[in-house]
From TrEMBL:
Residues 1-33 form the signal peptide. PROSITE patterns: TAT (PS51318). The keyword Hydrolase applies. The keyword Nucleotide-binding does not apply. Residues 283-342, 364-453 form the Atrophied bacterial Ig domain. It comes from the Bacteria. This is Immunoglobulin-like domain-containing protein. Keywords: Glycosidase, Hydrolase, Signal.
Length: 984
């Protein structure tokens, strides 16, 4: 609870007042100070629970909605400030202003750099749309407007709806706030509204309305921080003092009543201190533990800051922190404001300790990706080298590494490149040792890392998509094709959003999905931006997020933050105005992912300049989508606005499609708001101009421009290029087909062109892809409904099925077959999706069994003698991705058949045994009966007959045994019976 107090005395009790304020505005002298009537309510931002306390003594407390203790800060001369962050408002009670006449005064002390459709305060109730009766009549002040006619100026007015019009009368534009806290006083007197800024009149207007048409009949008079217009944002501003009178103050009383210039300057300094401290700190944990460079902003809250250092050798006036000191060193940094005040920050620069660089290293304990084995410490800049217990598994630092002449240098100097064990081989362990050296200190630290086996490969059998829908629906949705046809998309998850942001700006746009280099994981990055939250496009570009939102998944159904927390990852520097449309691509030479994004870049972190603010493209590197190189490197800066790049690789070249963000032509780029194509052999090669003749070995060569608008009739952005799967009916006979997509953002979303690798690669200034007869936009249809700037990616059948059912990946069915060659039995296991199969097969026959590990989906075993039939059971694998199956039995006996008959020879019975070898191997056959035994060699597919003379005129039935053996170890044993016979 903040203690209740009336800390700002009215002017009649002031000891004196300055003749010239720190804001350069005239104020009454002590002799001129006017008597000011007591206010009907005074809110000095003292609060208790959900009450904003009225310190006038009249007991008219306001009610806080979703504003908590954390919304209030104490600054200056023990001054409470309510920091409205578009996260709540206060409801004013009735009685502050009455409907008896048109006379009232509202004094409002505020500072804000946010220009938006917002109300600082309003008298009136009833939230509704423009020109409707649902919208209550009202009088209001917006301290900083985003409307073009009042851009960055104070907007105030009165509204009483008539039968034919909205009925709003606005006070003319009289300018904006003074630097720091300004007091805006609106006085209603009869049919006149007069607006004062820091005691000086800046505008006035007459009107025909009556407060009796405005004052609500209910218990709520109005609001602080809430607009009555549907769709307007809640207020973003710092408010330190608000007073209401049910009378009209004179100009002298207005000047006398407001907080003094000294009070406002002190509060302004306090707010600046609060706001700049996180910026100054950068990556340092606190001002008492400084080891990395500080960021000293050139301005804050519209106030210029000039910095001085008590020890520039330790902390320079540009924030550079020395790492050559031998002991902890205190330094005082002083910011002199353009108001003439000073703000001091006491810091302690910690002496470098090599252990801090080692302790700052974070490696995954199990990895599917190359490892970010940095060679420079993040805490103190120590030199770090890495060794590996198994260089074939994870490479160590390459002492001989040299940076390439063009493009990014490998920040890991050849270290950390992982060779994953084959699928089915199991994970492997490695010990990595980091040795850090700094200022003569050397220490080591070891890391145990498990290198994951490769994931299961299966052919791609469909496609998935991720996208957002509109400026009013900034969530991530997904869709999937019905099969292996790109133009058969339909929503998944019942058409509901897949990810809704509850962090950062609470908006998600421009999702991009990248499949990992090994194909068994997906990464998704998205823009942290919420236009529907009330952010205007101007502020979104000038003060937008420095973060990207990042997730990973193996099935595109279950997504997890790569950083393990519900927040984005800061990859941009404070000088940036926004971080838009992040995408990523694998760089073969760097063995890392390149994440690129569009940004407006200011001269300093305070964003003080208004020139050279065209969008350009930057990149950072990552191997795990958790740690990123810093600061971002310039990738595309031609002096013209560029955004929304996407990349594919064909042969030795990377091909890049980008949007010309200019409203018209940009140098040789023929049309604004359209797509152009470039190529380079070096993904990270910088681009400083659009050039048809550029050398693609060292930069990016222009290949095409104005690629879509002539076909679609619309402006386009968010290009995507997708390689078609084998078997897709849209693919070419050569299997090199591509779909190119462009987001027609004002006309329903993505449209598609079908092309191929050769057509893309052969585009030149004289023979441009977009000017060929075959470059035609497809009819609308087959893509996700209303997709805005998103991503399209190939998926296997199991992932496709999981997406469409919005469930876990199910095991793929398998079929096991066996064949025998002699005593060797071979099992083959096939997955229904044509993908890899690993694991074990258990062979069994009778009481015998043996388990064998599959190799290339095949397992062979030698079956011991005596086992005549074998089945094979595929046991599956630990990942459970392919289901078990059992073969039919295979026989290991020779295929020998026999028949018996008799004949009479000279009155005696003769037995005739006929044996047939239906097998594919020669067999040694032994025929044994009561009247003799014979052994013959019987070729494959042949028959032979053996005769036995009985010398008897009649015989009883005689069983004859047939045994056989082949050279490959198989055998046969059977009995044939000679029927009783007589020759009498």
């Amino acid at each position: 609870m903040t203690r209740r107090r009336g800390r700002r005395a009215l002017a009649s009790t002031l000891a004196g007042a300055v003749a010239l304020t720190a804001f350069g505005l005239a104020a009454p002298t002590a002799a001129q100070a006017a008597d000011v009537p007591a206010p009907s309510a005074h809110y000095d931002m003292s609060h208790s629970g959900t009450s904003l306390l009225d310190v006038s003594g009249n007991g008219r407390n306001a009610t806080l909605t979703t504003l908590t203790d954390s919304s209030f800060v104490k600054v200056g001369q023990n001054d409470d400030v309510l920091r409205f962050k578009a996260d709540g408002y206060a409801s004013l009670p009735k009685g502050l202003v009455t409907a008896t006449d048109n006379n009232f005064t509202v004094e409002y002390t505020v500072t804000t750099q946010t220009a938006a459709n917002q109300f600082g305060w309003v008298i009136g109730d009833g939230v509704g749309a423009w020109n409707t009766t649902a919208l209550g009549n009202h009088v209001f002040v917006n301290p900083r407007s985003g409307e073009s006619a009042y851009s960055n100026a104070v907007l105030s007015g009165i509204r009483v709806k008539t039968a034919t019009a909205n009925g709003e009368t606005r006070v003319p534009n009289g300018g904006g706030l003074n630097p720091g806290f300004s007091t805006l006083t609106l006085v209603g007197s009869g049919q006149t509204l007069t607006l004062y800024r820091d005691g000086v009149q800046i505008s006035t207007v007459t009107h025909t309305n009556s407060m009796s048409s405005i004052i609500p009949s209910g218990t709520t008079l109005g609001y602080l921080g809430r607009s009555l217009y549907t769709g307007d944002a809640l207020l973003q501003a710092d408010v330190t003092d608000v007073k209401f009178w049910d009378v009209s103050l004179t100009s002298d009383q207005v000047a006398s009543s407001m907080p003094t210039a000294a009070e406002k300057a002190a509060s302004t300094d306090g707010i600046i201190r609060l706001d700049i401290t996180p910026t100054v700190l950068g990556s340092n944990p606190s001002l008492n533990q400084v080891s990395s460079n500080l960021t000293l902003p050139a301005s804050s809250n519209g106030i210029t800051l000039t910095w001085a250092s008590s020890n520039p050798a330790v902390v320079s006036t540009s924030g550079v922190v020395s790492r050559s000191i031998s002991s902890d060193t205190p330094v005082t940094l002083t910011a002199t404001t353009s108001l003439g005040t000073t703000i001091t920050l006491d810091v302690v620069v910690k002496a470098p300790n090599v252990s801090a660089d080692l302790n700052a290293i974070s490696l995954a304990t199990r990895t599917t990706e190359n490892l970010p084995l940095a060679v420079k410490g993040s805490a103190n800049g120590a030199a770090i080298t890495w060794t590996s217990s198994d260089p074939a598994l994870v490479t160590p630092t390459n002492a001989a590494y040299t940076a390439p002449a063009v493009g990014a240098a490998d920040p890991y100097a050849g270290g950390g490149i992982v060779t994953r064990p084959a699928y089915g081989a199991g994970d492997k362990q490695v010990t990595l040792t980091a040795t850090a050296t700094l200022n003569g200190q050397t220490q080591t630290r070891t890391f145990q890392v498990t290198v994951a086996e490769k994931g299961r490969w299966a052919p791609d059998a469909g496609y998935a998509s991720a996208y957002f829908k509109s400026d009013s629906d900034e969530k991530i949705y997904q869709a999937a094709t019905s099969g292996n046809d790109f133009f058969t998309f339909s929503p998944v998850n019942g058409g509901n959003a897949v990810i809704t942001s509850t962090a950062d700006t609470k908006g998600l746009r421009d999702p991009y999905i990248l499949r990992s280099k090994d194909g068994d994981k997906y990464y998704m990055v998205a823009t942290d931006l919420c236009i529907s939250c009330g952010t205007g496009w101007g502020p979104a570009q000038s003060a937008g997020s420095l973060k990207i939102e990042v997730w990973e998944s193996t099935d595109l159904v279950h997504w997890a933050r790569t950083n393990g927390t519900n927040t984005g990852i800061t990859i941009n520097k404070p000088e940036a105005g926004m971080t838009w449309a992040p995408e990523a691509y694998w760089d073969d030479s760097l063995q890392s992912y390149v994440v690129f994004f569009s940004s407006r870049m200011y001269a300093d972190s305070a964003h003080t300049n208004s020139d050279n603010l065209y969008a350009r493209v930057f990149y950072v590197l990552t191997r795990d989508f958790k740690t990123f190189t810093y600061p971002p490197a310039s990738w595309q800066d031609t002096g013209y606005a560029r955004i929304d790049s996407t990349v594919t690789k064909i042969g030795d070249y990377y091909y890049r499609f980008t949007k010309n963000e200019e409203s018209g032509a940009a140098s040789v780029l023929e049309a604004g708001k359209d797509i152009f194509l470039e190529r380079s052999k070096v993904l990270t090669a910088p681009t400083t101009q659009s050039n048809w003749s550029a050398d693609p070995n060292s930069t990016w060569q222009l290949l095409d421009t104005r690629m879509t608008s002539l076909e679609t009739g619309q402006s386009g952005e968010g290009p995507e290029i997708v390689k078609l799967n084998a078997g897709d009916p849209n693919n070419t006979a050569a299997g090199d087909g591509y779909v190119f997509l462009v987001d027609n953002y004002s006309a329903g979303g993505y449209r598609a062109f079908v092309t191929d690798a050769q057509s893309i690669a052969s585009s030149t200034q004289a023979n441009r892809l977009s000017q060929r007869a075959e470059w035609n936009v497809r009819p609308v249809g087959g893509l996700p409904t209303s997709p805005r700037h998103g991503a399209f990616v190939s998926v296997t059948k199991s992932v496709l099925d999981a997406l469409k059912g919005w469930t876990n990946v199910a095991a793929v069915a398998s079929t096991t077959t066996v064949s025998a060659s002699g005593r060797n039995v071979t099992a083959n296991v096939d997955a229904a999706d044509g993908g890899q199969v690993v694991g074990t097969v258990t062979f069994s026959g009778g009481a015998w069994s043996k388990t064998v590990t599959l190799s290339d989906a095949t397992a062979t075993v030698e079956v011991p003698a005596g086992v005549t039939g074998v089945t094979a059971h595929y046991d599956g694998y630990t990942d459970g991705l392919v289901s078990a199956s059992t073969s039919s039995a295979v026989s290991l006996a020779l295929d020998i058949t026999a028949s018996a008959t008799t004949r009479c020879v000279t009155g005696k019975v003769t037995e005739v045994i006929t044996v047939t070898n239906a097998d594919d191997a020669t067999a040694t056959v032994t025929i044994t009966g009561a009247y003799g035994s014979k052994t013959v060699s019987l070729a494959a597919g042949k028959s032979t007959s053996a005769t036995f003379t009985t010398r008897l005129a009649s015989i009883a039935a005689d069983p004859v045994s047939i045994t056989a053996q082949s050279a490959d170890g198989r055998s046969h044993s059977s009995t044939v019976t000679v029927a009783a016979a007589s020759c009498n």
